[in-house]
């Protein structure tokens, strides 16, 4: 369940009662998130982060990540999500002084525990019992309050929130080698590397001598094989992480590629 509390989706309650929910996200805007119950695994190209009850984080825009949300301790996954739109951030910073004196680093921020966060989010659950949309003036106040709290708790937050630049053209091969496990559209891969779809496909062919889809499938299967054979992990635990949407499809293409099912790797190792 995903409930909006305003028509512009700037405040939302996410509630997952099923076994899990997986989504690959490249956010158009920054998201300020508080975990109320359950747990979420965040997979990026160079790290995995697990956040649980009481965790507060800022997810920057234009960053590739896989989010796996699931219930825990008999409670559903539940979170409050605030969206900081670029339009509102530009308006905010036009009225608040700031100075960027070092290079911007757009990374997922797991924010430290703080009483200001606790007090701020305590009021939110009651908002979701209200049937009507929240008044726009209240939304604006809550967004600005969140900004003030964030800037008070994290003195470096401006380096992320006040940077309005768009992705520039970057090294495609290096980017794809780091991010092949994310199940994005070709258009989105192109955007994140600073290219149109046509230019992305052309440059990809030049770099890898293959089509994007064929190369992505091959890389994901190779990573899956490594996890299963060298890390002693189970198919059910890794197919989402390596970029497949369901276990049966993963098993089918794995067997087609290697000649045996992913569940047979341990038996083959014993025989050898």
UniProtKB/TrEMBL annotation:
Matches recorded under Gene3D superfamilies: Homeodomain-like (1.10.10.60)
Keywords: DNA-binding, Transcription, Transcription regulation
Pfam families (UniProt xref): ExsA_N, HTH_18
InterPro entries: AraC_XylS_family_regulators, ExsA-like_N, Homeodomain-like_sf, HTH_AraC
Single GO MF annotation: DNA-binding transcription factor activity
Keyword Transcription found: yes
Domain HTH araC/xylS-type: from-to ranges: 170-268
Matches recorded under PANTHER family: HTH-TYPE TRANSCRIPTIONAL ACTIVATOR RHAS-RELATED (PTHR46796)
Protein name stated in the entry: AraC-like DNA-binding protein
